[in-house]
Amino acid sequence: MQPTPIFDPTQSSSFSKLPCSSNLCKALTDSNCNDGCGYLYGYGDHSTTQGVMASETFTFDQVSVPNIGFGCGNDNQGIGLDQSAGLVGLGRGPLSIVSQLHTGKYSYCLTSLGDSKTGSVLFGSLASSVNTNGVPVTTPLIKNPSPYKQSFYYLSLEGITVGTTRLPIPKSTFAIKDDGSGGVIIDSGATVAHLEDTAFKLVTKAFKEQINLPVAEGNPTELDLCFSLPSGTSDISVPPLLFHFNGADLDLPRENYMFPDPDRGLMCLAMRGSSNGMSIIGNFQQQNTLVLHDLDKQTLSFTATKCDQL
């Protein structure tokens, strides 16, 4: 159940349904014209929302922006929409808030899993004006040739190191194929990382070899690799994990790739294999990291940051 008050469009003087002739309605992949621009939209976690496209005035801190298009849902289903008032689209497509604000930059900083403090999303000049003590690393954003995948942020992942061993993963493993399949995206809406299957098998093999714990049998979680923790043990040594992007090495802190499950006596790798060839850097891997999208320069930067202190 949504904990915040449900939006009532009848109480708003600036709410307006969008006609089917609007550009935003035409950008939908599944719409109808029974009563304005009706829509049905699905997300990667299998959440769905159904309702009508509308425009409204959105207020960000002290700034109000009129005529922002959004989906006013009357039937929202799934985990992603269960405890929230909605989802904010940050992709490259025309429906996203980023595209509608015509901002050249935006950044976000996600707090730790379970942290009571909220993270931040910053648009425009504010996106890169955050004072952090970390040193940013920057990698180019790359384009997918497929017209159906233009909304994703693709990165050039060139390799992975577990411990001190750079894994024998060919660069072509993470490349975008001619038909638009494959590649690596960064997604604030996905929870854990998904790696192309052959690369994932090499990663899990390396962790099994370098962590001196038994692999959990009959794993009750949705994660593919968990280790059984000895009773009363909390401080387990785990090897470092680095993602080697074009021009940027992302050194992940332990809490961004190892998920402790003390109630079950487990420690799990917060990654899964990807059978469709596409790899995803999820929000678990982005905790306490300022992630800056510079759409003018077509770059993405990572800066280690205590997001609860911004």
UniProtKB/TrEMBL annotation:
Cite the Gene3D superfamilies for this sequence.
Acid Proteases (2.40.70.10)
Source organism's superkingdom?
Eukaryota
Which residue range or ranges hold the Peptidase A1 domain? 1-303
Would the keyword rRNA-binding turn up in this protein's UniProt record?
no
Q: Is Hydrolase there in the keyword field?
A: yes
GO BP field: proteolysis
Question: PANTHER family from the xrefs?
Answer: ASPARTIC PROTEINASE NEPENTHESIN-1-LIKE (PTHR47967:SF130), OS07G0603500 PROTEIN-RELATED (PTHR47967)
Instruction: State the family it belongs to.
Output: Belongs to the peptidase A1 family.
The molecule here is called Peptidase A1 domain-containing protein
The scientific name of the source species is Aquilegia coerulea (Rocky mountain columbine)
